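>> Question from a student workshop board

For tomorrow's exercise we were told to take the sequence and the ligand below, predict the bound structure, and bring the output to class. My setup keeps failing. Could a helper post the expected result so I can at least see what it should look like? The ligand is iron/sulfur cluster.
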Amino acid sequence: MPQLEFLIKCGVYGLMGLGIIAAVGAVLLPNLFHAGLALAFVLVTIAGIFMSVGAEFLGMVQILLYVGGVMTLIIYTIMLTGRLGAKDVRAQNRQGIFAAIAAGFFVCWIGPLILKTGAWPQRESDSAPPLLSVEDLGMSLMTEYVFPFEVLGVLLFAVLIGAIVIARQDRPS
Amino acid sequence: MFFGLGILRGMNITLMNFIRSYTRKRGSGEIGALTTVQYPEERLPEKEKFRNFPFLIYDDKPEDLRCVACDICAQDCPPRCIYIVKETDEAGKPMKKPAVFDIDFTVCMNCGICEEVCPFDAIFMDHEFEIADSDRHDKLLYHRDDLLKTNEHFHKIRPNDGREVDTRLAEAKEAKAKKDEARKKAAEAKAAAKAKAEAEKATEAKEDKPPETEKESDPQ
Amino acid sequence: MDQMFVNIKAALVGLSDKVFPDWVGVLVSIAVSIVAIALLGPLIMMYLTLIERKVVARMQNRIGPNRVGKYGLLQPLADGVKMLIKEDIVPRNADKVLHLLAPILIVAPALLVFAVLPFGRNMTAVDLNVGILFFAAISSIGTIGIFMAAWGSNNKFSVLGGMRSVAQMISYEIPMVMSVVPVLLAVGSLSTNAIVEAQADWHWFVFTPWGFLGCVIFFLCGVAECNRSPFDLAEAESEIIAGFHTEYSGMKFALFYMAEFMSAFTISGMTTTLFLGGWQGPLLPSWLWFFLKTYGLIFIMLWFRATLPRLRVDQLMALAWKFLLPLSLVNIVATCIWHFLSDEAFFTPAAFLVPLALLVFSYWGLMKLNQPYMPEKRVYPLVD
Ligand code: SF4
Ligand code: SF4
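>> Workshop helper replied:
Here is what the output should look like for this input. Compare the format with yours to find the bug.
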């Protein structure tokens, strides 16, 4: 059904466009709160793109963790920092050069990968089952990648304990 | 006991209320029965001491209302919502009667002070409360004739107070009558005494010279 | 009867297939689902308001709305008209765009979640294979909407309410997701349909010890997630007016209200799906079973509201972090024990009793650990 495919394509390109606009907004918006919301929107569009290419699990986790968790905390801190909504607070810094260098490295790294993937959407995968199901993901996490997984777990645990230690009130002597 | 027991107990109470609101008769006063009175169709019986807006009382004819336009209530009304103008006769002399007696019910706060201070038992608090109107300027400014109600009405809504006021009025009337009589008698006596004195004077004058001692000892 | 709605949809799609090329049929199928959900959401919300007012009234020995239409059945319509024709006030210093977008951003996720609810046999609008994850992810977007409403109103009460609400949502999301994990362990799938299918033949998860506990935790966290009493600190009237929707009026306010009621429905529907066997049930059509169970749970929500006073902020946080979260973690362990002892059978005494003992013990332990600080009764020796 080429017509449907066309519609889906339009939707995905629209999503990408919106994502780019929101990303530019996240960088340039003068109000930090708006910038935070724009960043959240970027993450949602990225999740949408994930879902459109069949990585539903990844998309959902993206929304759950980044939008529901990380972004919420970021915006929370922005709101807690009372005066940040004021006009005279600068939302930009002057590290454009370093940022450009970092971005250049990133593009050099990921560009070849993008060029390697070929045209989108890939015909073959239309009828074939998704390459990676949730079970596969779980299995590989628990077998092949169990060491990094455990290391990350220990790291997060250490972070949790550290947070508790920092947040704990000093005992009255 | 265990965590959450109190919550369960509380929830049991609300659940029983929920169920009993269906099984028990509305208004029966049992625990859990509905207490709502569906107002416009159903009403609770009015209590005698219930009070809303004041009305002016008259005895037989609307013309001879008890109010004497003394302005006491208007002075004592806390929000000053009573406005009184005395009636005047042809000669321009003020009469003991209000020509204008307005109460602004949008301002009246139903305190009942007017009833308490009126020395003539002329103003009382009514049970009428459904005076809502869409026009708050004209319709809720009550004039003298709108405020007039009979003594029978007063007796109907407040039988005990009506009886009390009536006996008080009757007593006052009786007392007044007695006093009048006494005064009349006194006046008569005075007149008689005067007449007598006059007569005596006349006789004395006839006798030309009254005896001095006699006059001095007279007051005793 | 059972497949009534499915057949209607199939007939509509078949009709379009006769006239149009087949790709229109797909669009029609999507459109029918979307329209059905878009109508169902507001309809459910409207009548939930009526049900709530009626039930709470009965619990307080009142009658509740009964003037508009028979038994007050048209009351929601009257309310809707009232909301529509009310003046829409935007505070002068508000962030106009955020103020406008916030109610939409709160309603949209609440409505989107309907897509993965299995309303009956073959009646899931989108049978995603990550359905449960979709539910958790999409409902977490609502917090952003609350932020926008709170910040955009430029009102201190709004910001306070927003802060409270978000702190609450973040805290309760964790035990909520943790209490779903046992079900996923038992079923081995994230799809809502598969979860319901796994509970056929009265194998409802609520009949197992871990299922019962999971059900209670999930439901409590859900009540907290949609800011309903007794967890309604975010809109505590007596403290912060109306919280994050203080500055909203008219239809925008109605949208907040709608989101709240729709998420109350989805939470109940999800609890039904996960633990109460979803649309499984004898005799009656499957969708009726689903709605019966869901409304039963909604009744419990209203029952909470009529009974329990609002929690304090510290109590709220303590409940989530010190009680529900450890308990849901223990619950996962209990599920694993159940899984290995039961040997594919739903009910075996050992598989029933061992997790039960574990759960009761940890419940007792947590209760002891959470003993609130009770100051000793003061004695005044000089007075006596
Ligand atoms: S109502 Fe009573 S107090 Fe008022 S003016 Fe008349 S007589 Fe006087
Ligand atoms: S009831 Fe009170 S407020 Fe009303 S007219 Fe009488 S004195 Fe005035």
